[in-house]
Design a protein that fits this description.
The complex is a heterodimer of chains A (489) and B (63).
Chain A lengths: L2 E4 L2 H11 L4 H4 L1 H4 L11 H15 L6 E8 L8 E8 L3 E8 L2 E10 L4 E2 L7 E2 L10 H4 L3 E5 L4 H7 L1 H7 L1 H17 L5 E12 L6 E10 L4 E8 L2 E9 L9 H5 L11 E5 L4 H12 L3 E6 L3 H13 L3 E6 L6 H4 L9 E4 L15 H23 L6 E7 L1 H4 L5 H20 L4 E7 L18 H13 L5 H6 L11
Parallel strand pairs in A: 6-9, 7-8, 13-14, 13-16, 14-15, 16-17, 17-18
Antiparallel strand pairs in A: 1-3, 2-5, 2-9, 3-4, 4-5, 8-10, 9-12, 10-11, 11-12
Chain B lengths: L21 H15 L5 H6 L3 H12 L1
The chains are: A alpha/beta (489), B mainly alpha (63).
């Protein structure tokens, strides 16, 4: 192994400052959780430069770089342990970056003399932007410019001194400028940096700028390929324009699906109601006349925006901070009314790269939220109202077990069993369970967008089922399946 | 593709390959398109069940 480390939030901020790539996916936990990454991730170029720094420190007399080819395959999360290994031959060196047992990025360094002179690809000056550009996909086609480095090469050289001595500070700065280009300019705000291939070039008049031109876009997979040149490098950058965060239906749209007084008199708590399926559930209930409280863990502003939309439509909505991994009771103290109904959409990030068949720590993460957190909430609510009715969203993954989702499926199965036990042991409390398919949300977003069904139609029967409880005793005794999977609708 | 050890057959499905995800899949599809000079429809890209179906669609386009 060449080196190992974790990239902290402070490391991220430092690299963002010198590279100029302040894309929220690297720095903002609230906004990053609405992307495919699910949490702040390390800049790919930060990994690359750290790997080169480690390589040159190990082998100070490294031959000159002729070509670099990097592929960024998976995200590396902030605070995740990353190791880099080197496979050296006479003509090249392959750096593999590994996290959680899998290769997340690869860098091939070929040695040799600079191969050609760089030619500027555009004369149009583009300053390093303070905020990431939010471009439509069409606007990316044909885009070009000469992007100013965010910092002088010497500033980057202070972060990567050995790599700068080997490559030249300006080339290191130019590599850093490629992440500035992708993350802030084009594709910009909704970007994924997939890789680059650059060659060392000799420049007659060195400049602290990286010229670029979009050479190909493919709207089917939202790929954006660019030629780059400047700062002593020239080559190509591959990127994707990911789909923006998934907007859910408005209260007005959802009002067409329910009767105005259908849920009147109910007071519903929606845990995780600031976005996704929880947001839709909250809006459905409010459109039907229920008083709703939506909780958030980190997205306070998003929760307040949903609440404001509900209020503007004539509904009653409050927000509260709630962390499903912490004791429920004190967190519910501020609620205006004891909930008659509760919907539990608390979830860790579901989809993620994983190499091992089974990871105990990952199962624990899911169990903590899907089992302990749910029981904890139910007990706290039951102390307020013994006949509280709850909704537990399970998943078709329990039976379908998609590859890489074993721990998620196990935890949801455990949650279902818990719900069945609660229905038998804790009446008049009742839990309605549904195995939800993949529905359109931030968690299921892809670069190929739009094919998943919207959640409202799938959720509404189970909202109605949940709202139908508590029921009279004779009705309850007639039911034989305490799980009620698939019984509504 | 970073892993040269993956041996594809006509029956290989996305879920058969460790660490495979939509990002890898898109990269793979784009690589096939570049290699053979074809363009798949979005609906096909989303629904190819295995390598064999990609091969068949490629043959169909080239025919």
């Amino acid at each position: 192994m060449l080196a190992e480390r974790t990239f902290t939030k402070a490391d991220q901020a430092r690299f963002a400052a010198v590279s100029g790539d302040r894309n929220p996916v690297h720095l903002d936990a609230v906004l990053a959780r609405r992307t495919q990454a699910g949490a702040p991730v390390v800049h790919g170029v930060h990994l690359l430069l750290w790997g080169l720094e480690a390589l040159v420190r190990t082998e100070p007399a490294l031959p000159p770089m002729r070509r670099l080819k990097a592929q960024f395959k998976h995200f590396a999360a902030v605070d995740e342990r990353v190791a880099v290994t080197a496979t050296r031959t006479e003509a090249s060196c392959i750096l593999r970056f590994v996290a959680a047992g899998m290769t997340i990025a690869q860098l091939v360094v070929e040695f040799g003399a600079a191969v050609r002179a760089a030619e500027a690809l555009s004369a149009e000056p583009v300053p390093a932007p303070a905020e990431a550009h939010d471009l439509s996909f069409d606007a990316m086609t044909g885009r070009s410019g000469r992007l100013a480095f965010a910092s002088p090469p010497d500033a980057i050289a202070m972060m990567f001194p050995a790599a700068s001595r080997w490559l030249d500070p300006r080339r290191v700065a130019a590599l850093a400028a490629t992440t500035l280009l992708v993350g802030m300019v084009c594709p910009g705000l909704h970007s994924i940096y997939a890789g680059l291939t650059v060659e060392a070039c000799d420049e007659s008049v060195p400049e602290d700028r990286l010229s670029f031109r979009v050479t190909a876009t493919d709207p089917r997979v939202r790929s954006v390929h660019m030629a780059v040149a400047g700062g002593g490098i020239a080559g190509a950058v591959q990127s994707y324009a990911r789909m923006p965060p998934t907007p859910q239906a408005s209260v007005q749209d959802l009002a067409d699906l329910v009767e105005p007084d259908e849920f009147r008199g109910a007071s519903a708590l929606i845990v995780g109601g600031s976005r996704g399926l929880g947001e839709v559930t909250a809006k459905l209930l409010a459109a039907g006349g229920a008083r709703v409280a939506i909780s958030y863990r980190v997205g306070g502003a998003e929760a307040e925006a949903v609440a404001e939309e509900i209020r503007s439509a004539g509904g009653v909505c409050e927000t509260l901070a709630y962390d499903a991994s912490l004791p429920a009771e004190p967190q519910l103290a501020g609620l205006a009314a004891a909930p008659t109904h509760a919907y539990y959409f608390a979830t860790p990030k579901i989809f993620g790269a994983q190499s091992a068949l089974f990871a105990r720590a990952r199962l624990d993460t899911f169990l903590n939220v899907y089992v302990d957190g749910f029981l904890n909430l139910a007990e706290a609510l039951r102390a307020r109202r013994r006949d509280v009715s709850l909704f537990y969203p399970s998943s078709v993954a329990v039976t379908e077990r998609p590859r890489g989702m074993l721990e998620y499926a196990m935890a949801k199965a455990a949650g279902e069993t818990l719900c069945a036990e609660m229905n038998q042991a804790l009446p008049p409390l009742h839990v309605t369970v549904d195995r939800l398919p993949r529905l359109r949300s931030d968690q299921t977003a892809s670069v190929i967008g739009g094919s998943l069904p919207s959640p409202a139609g799938r959720l509404l029967p189970f909202v109605r089922e949940t709202q139908s409880w508590p029921r009279k005793a004779e009705t309850r005794s007639a039911r034989v399946d305490p799980l009620q999977i698939g019984s509504a609708g | 593709m970073l892993d040269d050890s993956i041996a594809l057959t006509m029956e290989t499905r996305r879920e058969d390959i460790p660490d495979w995800d939509s990002f890898n899949y898109v990269n793979f599809i784009v690589a096939v398109e570049l290699e053979f000079g074809v363009k798949f429809k979005v609906a096909d890209i989303e629904s190819f069940p295995n390598v064999g179906s990609i091969v068949e669609e490629t043959k169909k386009i080239l025919a």
